[in-house]
Amino acid sequence: MEKYVIAFVVGGLICVAVQILMEKTKMMPGRIMVLLVCLGSVLGAVGLYQPFADFAGAGATVPLLGFGNVLWKGVKSAVDQDGFLGLFKGGFTAGAVGCSAALIFGYLCSLICNPKMKK
């Protein structure tokens, strides 16, 4: 039960930080999303993300910070295995399942619900 509370609180704090960025700066949501992915990659590269993810569980791995870390892990693993070409394929390989799931579930939701264009 304690792990769920920690994950909830950490994930909520990440969301609060993003909401503050959206409200107090002129950054557009797309740029904030890119910032989170890049921050997750950088934190993974310097070795700070894994201890954070071990502590926070899904509260750290589900948000976009976690996606950046997944990309970093994939690139690092592919570079170790394949050399220079790993730079180009590692992120695609590591992020393929999450991206595919998002596309498939989004499509299924659009079949169940009645999506409408904004006016």
Give me the count of strands. Answer: 0
Radius of gyration: 17 Å
What fraction of the residues are assigned to beta strands by DSSP? under 5%
Overall geometric form: globular
Largest sheet: none
The overall pLDDT average reads: 89
- Uncertain spans: none
Protein structure class: mainly alpha
- The number of domains is 1
Order of helices and strands: HHHHHH
As an assembly, this protein is single chain
Q: How many helices?
A: 6
How far apart the termini lie comes to 44 Å
Helix percent band: over 70%
Task: Tell me briefly what this model is.
By secondary structure, the protein is an all-alpha fold.
Can you give a write-up of this model?
With 119 residues, the chain is mainly α. The chain has six helices and no strands. Helix 5 (64-82) runs antiparallel to helix 6. The longest helix has 27 residues, at 86-112. The mean pLDDT is 89.
Features:
single chain, 119 residues, mainly alpha, 6 helices, 82% helix
Task: Itemize the secondary structure elements and their pairings.
Blueprint: H1 2-24, H2 29-45, H3 49-56, H4 58-61, H5 64-82, H6 86-112
Helix pairs in contact: 2-5, 5-6
